[in-house]
Write a structure and sequence with these properties.
Layout (H helix, E strand, L loop, with lengths): L6 E4 L13 H13 L19 H15 L6 E6 L2 H14 L3 E6 L7 H13 L5 E5 L10 H8 L4 E6 L4 H11 L4 E4 L5 H6 L4 E4 L1 H4 L1 H12 L3 H20 L2 H11 L16 H13 L4
Parallel strand pairs: 1-7, 2-3, 3-4, 4-5, 5-6, 6-7
Helix pairs in contact: 1-2, 3-4, 4-5, 5-6, 9-10, 10-12, 11-12
């Protein structure tokens, strides 16, 4: 599988039944449909996948299911998240053995971690695998964020080649691109306007909304790559309504609610998270209808 990651990578939901079992049939169907709609890769165990609410067995079942369903048609970048280096390294090695094509590295923290500790964490993940590593920064939820000097230091490690940034700050992305001097490629998140990130040099986006609007997301990416900016922005305006719904409602609830509206039996977010409210459901339905995704 080529290591040049680019394009639309949906952050997959993690369908879990009442007994805690991963609904592998539902997840496999979703993977098949996303690939049929042209997505460029799949990312299990991102934020939309509720990685923080799953135990180790559930996480492994999600990754195994996605890899089996994908059948090497597109790359699978598996999420690794831990509070300790030992746990992160073990997850990384396990997912590489299972057949993942890349690692999405997330730092969980209860106590604050200084820059040296952050560098040590991500460096250990990179050294534990031969796979390309995407480092993920989300200051809205992370106790210890990645500073630009930290990102620059990590960009000098051979297989840390990508950054997925969910900071809302598109200017920061341009600063990162300038500071890393071509060593780091940037993926946007749903917190950013994807077309704007593509304009400044991004290579795509990893985000939950692409699970529900894959065809429109791929069309937007293609328009950006072709530099057809007026058409791209016309489509981006329609897609932005779904991003706004994400900002107002629980992330997993919004995504699972959207997929339920489309007929996927993905269930509700893991408690104590609440399901999507009636008002949220109406808002998501309208956003999906606006881009022909219902």
């Amino acid at each position: 599988m080529p290591a040049d990651f680019h394009g639309v990578f949906p952050y997959l939901v993690s369908p879990v039944d009442a007994d805690g079992r991963i609904k592998d049939d539902v997840l496999a169907l979703l993977c098949d449909d996303l690939i049929a709609n042209g997505v460029h890769g799949l990312t299990p165990l991102g934020s939309t996948g509720e990685f923080a609410y799953l135990n180790a067995g559930q996480r492994q079942a999600v990754v195994e299911t996605v890899i089996a369903a994908t059948r090497k048609r597109v790359p699978v970048i598996a999420g690794v998240a831990a509070t300790t280096i030992v746990d992160a390294v073990e997850q990384t090695r396990r997912y590489e053995r299972l057949g993942a094509d890349g690692i999405l590295a997330v730092l969980e923290a209860y106590f604050p971690i200084d820059d040296a500790g952050v560098v040590a964490y991500f460096s250990a993940i990179a050294m534990a695998t031969s796979l390309p590593v995407v480092i993920y920064t989300n200051p809205n939820f992370q106790r210890s964020d990645l500073t630009i000097p930290t990102i620059v230091a990590l960009s000098k490690i051979n297989n840390i080649r990508y950054l997925k940034d969910a900071s809302h700050n598109t200017g920061r992305l341009l600063s990162i691109l300038n500071a890393t001097e071509g060593r780091m490629k940037v993926f946007a998140a749903s917190a950013h306007i994807p077309a704007a990130v593509m304009l400044i040099g991004g290579v795509g986006w990893m985000a939950g909304p692409a699970c529900a609007v894959p065809a429109a997301s791929v069309a937007l990416y293609d328009l950006c790559r072709a530099e057809r900016w007026p058409e791209a922005m016309a489509l981006q305006r329609k897609l932005w309504a779904l991003n706004q719904a994400f900002a107002k409602h629980n992330l997993a609830a919004c995504m699972k609610g959207a997929l339920e509206l489309q007929g996927y039996d993905v269930g509700v977010p893991l408690p104590p998270q609440a399901p999507l409210s009636a008002a949220g459901r109406d808002e998501v339905r309208a956003a999906l209808a606006a881009v022909g995704a219902l």
